[in-house]
Automatic annotation (TrEMBL):
Matches recorded under Pfam families: AAA_31
Stored InterPro entries: AAA_dom, DNA_Partitioning_ATPase, P-loop_NTPase
PANTHER family: COBYRINIC ACID AC-DIAMIDE SYNTHASE, P-LOOP CONTAINING NUCLEOSIDE TRIPHOSPHATE HYDROLASE
Name of the molecule in the record: ParA family protein
Domain AAA: 22-196
Transmembrane segments: none
Length: 275
């Protein structure tokens, strides 16, 4: 499949109204595979196409917040919402510089959430109850999960309608996907029967190397039509955009990586995963 056919999917038609949002978890227990980069740039691309988007930073590292230039130090965060210190999500939501893209930030406090939640009633459903309060105000909510299959990730999957798995085009990255799919199936079976695997997104692809091409072929062989046609290439522009606190679709809008994320947004709409 071509990794450069950026006009394969049509530009989405405008929406007549807003909400209720479809909630998507960006999930992989392996770190460094492009979850946060994808959350930021998919969210920004959907916002550019007129969708109201809320990105939820669900990783104690707070990379999503930093990548969108959002302060998460002196302001309330997702942690306060989870533990009930703040009841209204509107007190936590911050507007990014991208029109139509809002953020619920996170910081290191979130690392204590699993210990706090472990004794709570319906502990797997706390994020779902938080997002329910704002779901009608957005078209898409994207949850950027931490690299773990712990209670926070289970909360995200329980709250979600779909899950996207960014998968680095590297051999060892393939090994953990079976475990993640097993976790998704357990959540489907026990907590959230409506959860769907929206797709597996190949990331950090380097077409110059045989290794990347072979891994991509194996991903297609293993997962078939569950693999997005869009493939995200490797580029130094991503860290540059992160340092600037701006999505690559605005930092370098004509770069191939920006075009790829806009195609991903169009592909999600074409697949019916996003309105």
């Amino acid at each position: 499949m071509s990794t450069t056919n950026y006009h394969r999917f049509p530009v989405p038609a405008p929406l007549e109204g807003t909400g209720p949002a479809r909630i998507i978890s960006m999930c992989n227990q392996k770190g460094g595979v492009g979850k946060t980069t994808t959350t930021i740039n998919l969210g920004a691309s959907l916002a550019q196409y007129g969708r109201r988007v809320l990105c939820v930073d669900f990783d104690p590292q707070g990379a999503l917040s930093a990548g969108l230039g959002i302060s998460a130090h002196d302001e309330p965060t997702i942690y306060e919402l989870l533990v009930g210190a703040v009841k209204d999500p509107h007190e936590v939501i911050q507007h990014s510089e991208v029109e139509g893209l809002d953020v619920i930030p996170a910081n290191i406090d979130l690392s204590a959430a699993e210990v706090h939640l472990v004794t709570e009633v319906a502990r797997e459903q706390i994020l779902a109850s938080v997002l329910r309060k704002v779901r009608n105000e957005y078209d898409v909510i994207i949850v950027d999960c931490q690299p773990s299959l712990g209670l926070l990730t289970v909360n995200a999957l329980t709250a979600s309608h779909g899950v996207i798995i960014p998968l680095e085009c590297e051999f060892f990255a393939l090994r953990g996907v079976a475990l993640l799919v097993e976790t998704i199936e357990k959540v489907q079976d026990r907590l959230n029967p409506s959860l769907e695997l929206d797709g597996i997104l190949p990331t950090m692809f380097d077409g110059r190397t045989l290794h990347s091409r072979e891994v991509l072929d194996r991903v297609y062989d293993a997962f078939g039509d569950k693999v997005f046609e869009t493939v995200i290439g490797k580029t130094v522009k991503f860290p540059d955009a992160s340092v600037a606190g701006v999505p690559i679709v605005e930092f370098a809008p004509h770069h191939n990586a920006a075009e790829a994320y806009r195609q991903l947004a169009r592909e999600l709409v074409a697949r019916g995963a996003v309105a």
